[in-house]
Design a protein that fits this description.
The structure is a single chain. The chain has helices at residues 34-41, 43-55, 63-77, 87-93, 146-151, 157-167, 210-238, and strands spanning 10-11, 30-33, 103-111, 116-127, 133-142, 172-183, 196-197, 202-205. It is of the alpha+beta class. It has a single domain (10-238), classed as Lambda Exonuclease, Chain A (Alpha-Beta Complex), CATH 3.90.320. Strands 1, 2, 3, 4, 5, 6, 7 and 8 form an eight-stranded mixed beta sheet that branches. A hairpin with a 5-residue loop joins strand 4 (116-127) and strand 5 (133-142). Helix 1 (34-41) packs across helix 2.
Length: 239
């Protein structure tokens, strides 16, 4: 765990950014999310991270994140508020298991001393046969070639979620991704190759263990220090 102070572009606030209000003790601490961590670690996206978080360049997202957001909102609410999803999309979304006791977008905050990691679990629910143990599910849309990516050690989003739950005193029964097969590359449903779901969810287990989470947290701490060093330099010359 890091000992020295870090400076990050985002600060935790228990009353904003969708926070649940359950973690006011962390107000004012530098924070990072898994998506920010992943963007910094990917050479392809680091420039976009600097533009968005250092400089403040607006990020309009893209058609893939938009579509994933539409699907996630439907899974949580049962309503297509986007008015974009068609009958085929709804058909496949309705095959996703939705236990009656499922909770959506549960906030987690993992305390790393000089900073926190914040996230929102797509779906979690207690498993009765396991005496209150928790299943943690992260929904993704994408081609089946993404299965290998989410099954690899490079993907650690569910690890972050599970570690935070464990530190809340919750035991993990199952951790995994449900990949919703997606085809197309146009948001216009009338265009050639429209964005759409095309198949039942594919379960991709991401087994949780303390060893796996310890390895990830070492990488997370190192990444946070790297971001902080660069951000301090940016603030020195442009802040």
């Amino acid at each position: 765990m890091l000992k020295s102070k870090v400076v990050l572009p985002k600060i935790y606030d228990s009353k904003s950014d969708g926070a649940s209000g359950r973690f006011p003790q962390h107000d004012g601490k530098p924070k990072i999310s898994y998506s920010q961590y992943n963007s910094w670690c990917e050479d392809t996206y680091r420039g976009a991270y600097i533009g968005k978080y250092f400089i403040g360049v607006p990020d309009p997202g893209n058609i893939f994140t938009d579509f994933g957001g539409y699907c996630g909102e439907y899974l949580e609410t049962g309503v297509d508020k986007s008015n974009y999803l068609d009958a085929q999309d709804i058909k496949w979304l309705d095959t996703v298991e939705k236990p009656e006791n499922a909770e959506y977008e549960r906030e987690i905050v993992l305390d790393r001393g000089v900073y926190v990691a914040q996230g929102f679990i797509d779906q979690n629910y207690k498993v009765e046969k396991a005496n209150g143990d928790m299943d943690v599910i992260d929904f993704k849309t994408g081609g089946e070639k993404k299965i290998a990516d989410y099954a690899s050690d490079d993907y650690q989003q569910t690890t972050l979620y599970c570690r935070a739950l464990v530190e809340e005193g919750i035991e993990i029964n199952y951790s995994g991704v449900q990949l919703l097969p997606r085809k197309g590359n146009r948001l216009d449903k009338e265009a050639d190759h429209p964005m759409r779901l095309d198949g039942k969810p594919i379960d991709v287990p991401t087994p949780y263990s303390k060893e796996r989470s310890d390895k990830f947290l070492k990488k997370l701490d190192a990444t946070v220090k790297d971001i902080s060093d660069h951000y301090k330099c940016y603030l020195k010359f442009f802040g």
